Amino acid sequence: MSTKAASPLSSNPPQPNNLAADLKPQGNEGAPKVKPCCVCKDEKSARDECMLFSNASDPQDACKDLVGKYRSCMASYGFNMA
Question: Region Disordered: which residues (predicted)?
Answer without folding.
Answer: 1-33
